[in-house]
C-alpha cells in the first residue's frame, strides 16, 4: 500500500458515488442527466489553480465543513509558512491525494501517520478548499493593519440577531465543500492539524444538502422549510453578473484582493417546529413562492421571472409586502445581488426536544457594505420569515484571489 | 368555501387568496391549452380567447405598444380579480389568477396605465357556485371572541394607566409589582394587537429586536428602567407614550373585524410565542416574569378556541377533546410554578422544568395547528 493515490485506486467507483449523491438530493433531475455521460474518473476533481479560488462559483457540492480559526502566534513568518503548507496540502487533497505522499499508511511505523486516513478509499468527490481572512487578522500582529480593505469591516448588528460569540468571527476561515461529507471533514481536520501551534479552531459548522444552486446544470434544492432555495441565485454561467456582483475588481480596494471576494457566513437557526405547524398558505406567503413547483406567486413555473407587480383580488399584491423573495429581490434592493452557497444543518437537538437545525448561510459578494448589509437590513426589519428564524452566528471574511501552480493562499497579501 | 367571502381584516385576505390560488400544488393553465395570450398595444388589447373554464387562468401579456401598460381581469362591478402592472414596452409578463366562479368578466389593457382601459367581455364557464355566506356558528364565534377582546382591552387600558402612574411617581416597587399583571392583558390579545402595524412594536418591542433608528419604547423599555438601569430622565415620557399607544390600540382592537380563521390562527400564534420567546426566557430579559406572559398567552389561546368550540365540536369532536387535554396538561405544569398571586421567575426554573414546558407546549401546539383547517372546511 505504498503511494496510495485515492484517485488511481478509486476513481471509477468514485464517480458513481458522486452521482448517487447528486441524484439523491436532486431527485434524478438535471444533475443526474448532465453528469451521467461524463462519469469518467476525472470528473470529480475540481481544478485547484486559477484566477479565482475554487469553491465560489464551482457548482455547489452536497456537503460542507466550514471552520473559522484564530491565529495564536504573533510571528508573521510562521503564519506565512502555514499558509504555504496549507496550500500544498490543499493542492493534494483537492486532487484526490493524501495530504502528503505515503501519508496514511506508508510512513514509519513508529510515527503518527502524515495523513489521518479516513478519506483513503474515497474519491476526490469534487472537493474544493477556499480560504478567507477575517477583519481581526488585520490588527497589529502581522503588520497588516494598513492592508485591511474598508469593506472588511465588522458587520453591523441587525435587528433580531441573537449571535453567539462562540459561533462568530475568526481570523481565518476554511470552507471545504465536497460531494462526500467524509472528504470535506478529512480536509478540514488535516488542515487544522497542520495548523496546531499557529492556529486554533474558533468554531466550525457541518452542512449537508446544498441549499442553493450555483449553476444552471443543477436542479434547485430544498431547504429545511421544504421550499426550493436558490432559484434566482447568481449562477456560474452568468460571467458578467459575477464580475459585477461577486469578484473584487482592481480599484475596488487594496490590490491584493483583486480577483477575490467577500464571504459572509451566518448561522441561521430555523424554528422548524413552529414552521411545521404553519398553514401551507402562510408558508407560501412568507416565502413568496409556491411550495410545490417553486413558482413565484402569481406565476406558473419555477423559473418564471418574479413579478412583484402582480395583484390579486382588490389589486393586493400576490407577493406580499413582507414576503422573503420580495425583500431579497434585486428589484427591491436597487439591483443588488449576491451569490449564495449555503447548506442545511442539523446539530442534534436543543435540549427542549426541538431540532437544533437551520441554514448555514454562505454568500459571496463584491462589497458587503453595498450588497449583503442592505439586503440583510431589509430582511431583518421586515421579512415575515424572521418569525421563524434566528441568526445565531455571524462572520465576514475577505477571500483572496486564486493561486497558480507555485503560489500560496494569501501571497498577494503577504508577498 | 364560505369563508372566502368573509371580510378578512388584514393579513387574512391575502392569505386566503393565495390559498385558493396555490393549494392545488402544480398549477394548471386554462383549458390545458397553455396561457391565454394578450397582445397589448397603444390602441388594442387582443386576448387569444374570450372564454375559459373556471379555475386557475394564466394570462401572458405582451406589450407591443410604446407606452407602459397594465392588464386587469375584472368581475362584475369592476371588482379586480387579478392584475399586472408596469409592463414596459417589449416585455411579457405572466399572471395566474384563480377564477372559481362561472360568469361574465372583463379583460382590460391600460396603455399609459390610466383610464378605464381597452375592455372586452370574457366568459368563464363551469365551476362550483359558492355557497351563500355567513355560517351562523362561525359568526357567533367571532362575535364571542370580539367581546373577549373588548373586555381584555378595557382592563389593559385601566391597568396600563396605573402602571404608568407608578412609573411617573417614581414608585419603583409599585411599578415593578404592576408590570407583569398589566402585561397579562396585552399578552392575551396579542394576535389582535399585532394586526396594527406600528403599534405592537411601539408597545412591546424587545431591545434585541430594535431596528436602526427605532426608538426603544413601551413595556420592555420600562422593564429595563425598573429592573436594570433605574428610572431614566425620560421614563415618565415613555410611560405617557405607552398610555397613549395603548389607548389607540384599544380603540382599534374593539373596532376590528375578525374572521373565524383569525381566531384559529391567533390561538396557534400565541402558542408559537410561548415556544420561541417565553420558554427561552427571551421575552422578559430584565424582570424574568416570563411565566406571567406564558399564562396569558395560554389564556388568550384558550379563549379563541372556546369561542370556536361549537363549530369544532360539530366538525371534529376528537380534535376538541385532544386540545382540551393538552391545555389542561400545560395548565397543570404552570400551576405547579405559582408563587403568591403570580409565578416563579424564569431564572428560578430548572432546565428540566423548562424542558417539560417545551414538551407540553409542543403537544398542545400540534393539534391546535389543525384547528384552522377544520374552521376553513
From TrEMBL, chain A:
Keyword Signal carried by entry: yes
Keywords: Heme, Iron, Lyase, Metal-binding, Oxidoreductase, Peroxidase, Signal
Cofactor: how bound: Binds 1 heme b (iron(II)-protoporphyrin IX) group non-covalently per subunit.
Origin superkingdom: Bacteria
Subcellular locations according to the entry: Cell envelope
Gene Ontology MF annotations: peroxidase activity
Catalytic activity: heme b + 2 H(+) = protoporphyrin IX + Fe(2+)
EC class of the enzyme, as a word: oxidoreductase
UniProt cross-references to PROSITE patterns, sorted A to Z: DYP_PEROXIDASE, TAT
Signal peptide annotation: 1-20
Dyp-type peroxidase N-terminal domain residues: 53-208
EC number: 1.11.1.-
Domain (Dyp-type peroxidase C-terminal) ranges: 220-403
InterPro entries assigned: Dimeric_a/b-barrel, Dyp_perox_C, Dyp_perox_N, Dyp_peroxidase, EfeB/EfeN, TAT_signal
Listed cofactors: heme b
Role: Involved in the recovery of exogenous heme iron. Extracts iron from heme while preserving the protoporphyrin ring intact.
Family of this protein: Belongs to the DyP-type peroxidase family.
Listed name of the protein: Deferrochelatase
Organism of origin: Amycolatopsis thermophila
Higher taxonomy: Bacteria, Bacillati, Actinomycetota, Actinomycetes, Pseudonocardiales
Amino acid at each position: 500500500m505504498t503511494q496510495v493515490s485515492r484517485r488511481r485506486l478509486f476513481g471509477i467507483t468514485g464517480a458513481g458515488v458522486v452521482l448517487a449523491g447528486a441524484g439523491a438530493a436532486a431527485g434524478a433531475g438535471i444533475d443526474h442527466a448532465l453528469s451521467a455521460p461524463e462519469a469518467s474518473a476525472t470528473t470529480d476533481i475540481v481544478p485547484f489553480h486559477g484566477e479565482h479560488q475554487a469553491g465560489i462559483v464551482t457548482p455547489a457540492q452536497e456537503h460542507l465543513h466550514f471552520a473559522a480559526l484564530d491565529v495564536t502566534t504573533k510571528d508573521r513568518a510562521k503564519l506565512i509558512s502555514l499558509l504555504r503548507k496549507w496550500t500544498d496540502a490543499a493542492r493534494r487533497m483537492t486532487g484526490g491525494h493524501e495530504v502528503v505522499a505515503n501519508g496514511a499508511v506508508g510512513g514509519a511505523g513508529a510515527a503518527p501517520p502524515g495523513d489521518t486516513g479516513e478519506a483513503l478509499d474515497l474519491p476526490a468527490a469534487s472537493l474544493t478548499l477556499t480560504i478567507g481572512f477575517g477583519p481581526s487578522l488585520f490588527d497589529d500582529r502581522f503588520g497588516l493593519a494598513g492592508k485591511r480593505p474598508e469593506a472588511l469591516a465588522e458587520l453591523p448588528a441587525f435587528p433580531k440577531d441573537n449571535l453567539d460569540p462562540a459561533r462568530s468571527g475568526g481570523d481565518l476561515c476554511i470552507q471545504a465543500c465536497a460531494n462526500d461529507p467524509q472528504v470535506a471533514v478529512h480536509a478540514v481536520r488535516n488542515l487544522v492539524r497542520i495548523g496546531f501551534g499557529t492556529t486554533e479552531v474558533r468554531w466550525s459548522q457541518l452542512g449537508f444538502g446544498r441549499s442553493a444552486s450555483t449553476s444552471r446544470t443543477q436542479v434547485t434544492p430544498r431547504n429545511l422549510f421544504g421550499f426550493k432555495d436558490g432559484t434566482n441565485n447568481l449562477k456560474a454561467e452568468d460571467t458578467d453578473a459575477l464580475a459585477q456582483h461577486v469578484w473584487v475588481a482592481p480599484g475596488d480596494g487594496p490590490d491584493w484582493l483583486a480577483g477575490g471576494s467577500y464571504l459572509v457566513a451566518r448561522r441561521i437557526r430555523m424554528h422548524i417546529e413552529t414552521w411545521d405547524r404553519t398553514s401551507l398558505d402562510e408558508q407560501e406567503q412568507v416565502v413568496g413562492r409556491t411550495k410545490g413547483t417553486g413558482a413565484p406567486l402569481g406565476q406558473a413555473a419555477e423559473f418564471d421571472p418574479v413579478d412583484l407587480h402582480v395583484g390579486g383580488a382588490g389589486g393586493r399584491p400576490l407577493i406580499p409586502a413582507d414576503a422573503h423573495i420580495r425583500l431579497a429581490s434585486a428589484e427591491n434592493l436597487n439591483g443588488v445581488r449576491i451569490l449564495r452557497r449555503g447548506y442545511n444543518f442539523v446539530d442534534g437537538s436543543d435540549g427542549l426536544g426541538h431540532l437544533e437545525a437551520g441554514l448555514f448561510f454562505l454568500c459571496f459578494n463584491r462589497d458587503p457594505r453595498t450588497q449583503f448589509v442592505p439586503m440583510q437590513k431589509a430582511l431583518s426589519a421586515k421579512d415575515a420569515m424572521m418569525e421563524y428564524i434566528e441568526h445565531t452566528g455571524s462572520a465576514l471574511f475577505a477571500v483572496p484571489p486564486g493561486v497558480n501552480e507555485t503560489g500560496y493562499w494569501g501571497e498577494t497579501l503577504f508577498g | 368555501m364560505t369563508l372566502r367571502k368573509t371580510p378578512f381584516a388584514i393579513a387574512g385576505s391575502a392569505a386566503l387568496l393565495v390559498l385558493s390560488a396555490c393549494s392545488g400544488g402544480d398549477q394548471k393553465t386554462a383549458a390545458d391549452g397553455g396561457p391565454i395570450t394578450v397582445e397589448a398595444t397603444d390602441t388594442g388589447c387582443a386576448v387569444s380567447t374570450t372564454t375559459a373554464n373556471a379555475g386557475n387562468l394564466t394570462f401572458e401579456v405582451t406589450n407591443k405598444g410604446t407606452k407602459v401598460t397594465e392588464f386587469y381581469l375584472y368581475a362584475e362591478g369592476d371588482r379586480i380579480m387579478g392584475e399586472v402592472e408596469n409592463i414596459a414596452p417589449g416585455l411579457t409578463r405572466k399572471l395566474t389568477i384563480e377564477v372559481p366562479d362561472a360568469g361574465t368578466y372583463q379583460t382590460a389593457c391600460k396603455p399609459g396605465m390610466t383610464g378605464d382601459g381597452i375592455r372586452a367581455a370574457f366568459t368563464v364557464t363551469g365551476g362550483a357556485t359558492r355557497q351563500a355566506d355567513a355560517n351562523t356558528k362561525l359568526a357567533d364565534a367571532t362575535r364571542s371572541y370580539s367581546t373577549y377582546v373588548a373586555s381584555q382591552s378595557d382592563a389593559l387600558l385601566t391597568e396600563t394607566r396605573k402602571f404608568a402612574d407608578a412609573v411617573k411617581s417614581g414608585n419603583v416597587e409599585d411599578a415593578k409589582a404592576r408590570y407583569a399583571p398589566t402585561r397579562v392583558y396585552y399578552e392575551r390579545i396579542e394576535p389582535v394587537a399585532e394586526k396594527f402595524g406600528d403599534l405592537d412594536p411601539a408597545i412591546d418591542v424587545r431591545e434585541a429586536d430594535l431596528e436602526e433608528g427605532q426608538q426603544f419604547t413601551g413595556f420592555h423599555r420600562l422593564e429595563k428602567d425598573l429592573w436594570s438601569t433605574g428610572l431614566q430622565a425620560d421614563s415618565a415620557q415613555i410611560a405617557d407614550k405607552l398610555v397613549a399607544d395603548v389607548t389607540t390600540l384599544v380603540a382599534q382592537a374593539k373596532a376590528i373585524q375578525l374572521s373565524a380563521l383569525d381566531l384559529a390562527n391567533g390561538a396557534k400564534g400565541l402558542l408559537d410565542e410561548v415556544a420561541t420567546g417565553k420558554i427561552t426566557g427571551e421575552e422578559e430579559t430584565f424582570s424574568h416574569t416570563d411565566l406571567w406572559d406564558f399564562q396569558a398567552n395560554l389564556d388568550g389561546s384558550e379563549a379563541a378556541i372556546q369561542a370556536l368550540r361549537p363549530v369544532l365540536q360539530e366538525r371534529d369532536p376528537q380534535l376538541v377533546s385532544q386540545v382540551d387535554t393538552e391545555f389542561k396538561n400545560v395548565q397543570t405544569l404552570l400551576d405547579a410554578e405559582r408563587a403568591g398571586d403570580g409565578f416563579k421567575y424564569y431564572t428560578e426554573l430548572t432546565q428540566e422544568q423548562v424542558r417539560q414546558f417545551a414538551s407540553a407546549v409542543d403537544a398542545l401546539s400540534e393539534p391546535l395547528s389543525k384547528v384552522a383547517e377544520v374552521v376553513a372546511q
